[in-house]
Specification:
Layout (H helix, E strand, L loop, with lengths): L6 H16 L6 H8 L3 H8 L2 H26 L3 H6 L1 H11 L7 H8 L5 H25 L4 H18 L5 H20 L1
Helix pairs in contact: 1-2, 1-4, 3-4, 4-6, 4-8, 6-10, 8-9, 9-10
Length: about 190
C-alpha cells in the first residue's frame, strides 16, 4: 500500500513540473492544484499565494542545485576541475532533477517581469553564488585577470543553459564544457 506524499510536497512537485516548463505567469493556479490533487485552501495555508509557491519551488531548486554542484566540487582534484565542476554538476542535475529544458532561475527571471521581493532575493542569491564560485575558482586557475575568466565562465554557463532550449541537453552541455576549456586554456597561456 503506497501512501501519498504530503500536500505541501505535492504542491511543490506540481509547481516544479509546471512553472518551470510553461512559465509561472502562464500557468494558472488551478492547473497546479489539479496536478497536485490539492485544494486552494491547502495552497494558501502552506504558501500564502501563487508567488509564495513559486518562491518555495525556487528555494527548493536552489538547495538541490547547490547540493549537486557541491558533490561535483568534491570530486574535483585540481583548480581547473573546480572551475569546470559546473558542467558535470549540470549534467547530473539535468539527468536527475530537471523537468524543464533550461534553467528555472533564468526562466523565472524572463517570465516574471515584476518579481516580488522573495523571488527577487532567490534569483539574486543564485546569481551571486555563480559569480562568487566562478571568481574563487578562476582565481585558483590564473592570477592574470581572474575576473575576466569568471565573467566568461558565467556567460558560457548561461549560454549553455539557453542552448538547451535549441539542442539536446547533452549536446549543449558538451559544447559549453568544450568552450569553457578553451577559455581556461586562453587565460593560462
Amino acid at each position: 500500500m503506497s501512501t501519498r506524499p504530503p500536500v505541501r510536497d505535492r504542491l511543490l512537485d506540481a509547481a516544479d513540473a509546471l512553472f518551470f516548463q510553461a512559465g509561472a505567469i502562464a500557468t494558472p493556479v488551478d492547473k497546479v492544484l489539479a496536478q497536485a490533487g490539492a485544494s486552494p485552501s491547502s495552497l494558501y495555508a502552506h504558501f500564502g499565494n501563487k508567488d509564495g509557491l513559486l518562491a518555495a519551488a525556487l528555494e527548493r531548486r536552489l538547495e538541490v542545485w547547490t547540493q549537486v554542484w557541491d558533490r561535483a566540487l568534491a570530486q574535483a582534484d585540481t583548480p581547473q576541475e573546480r572551475l569546470m565542476s559546473i558542467f558535470p554538476a549540470l549534467r547530473t542535475y539535468q539527468g536527475e532533477h530537471m523537468t524543464e529544458r533550461w534553467c528555472a532561475f533564468s526562466g523565472t527571471a524572463a517570465t516574471v517581469p515584476t518579481q516580488p521581493p522573495r523571488i527577487a532575493d532567490i534569483l539574486q542569491r543564485e546569481t551571486q553564488m555563480l559569480r562568487e564560485r566562478f571568481l574563487t575558482f578562476a582565481s585558483e586557475v590564473t592570477l592574470d585577470r581572474p575576473e575576466a575568466l569568471a565573467r566568461a565562465m558565467m556567460i558560457t554557463y548561461t549560454g549553455t543553459t539557453a542552448m538547451m532550449l535549441r539542442v539536446p541537453w547533452s549536446e549543449a552541455i558538451h559544447d559549453g564544457e568544450m568552450t569553457a576549456r578553451t577559455l581556461i586554456a586562453a587565460h593560462q597561456g
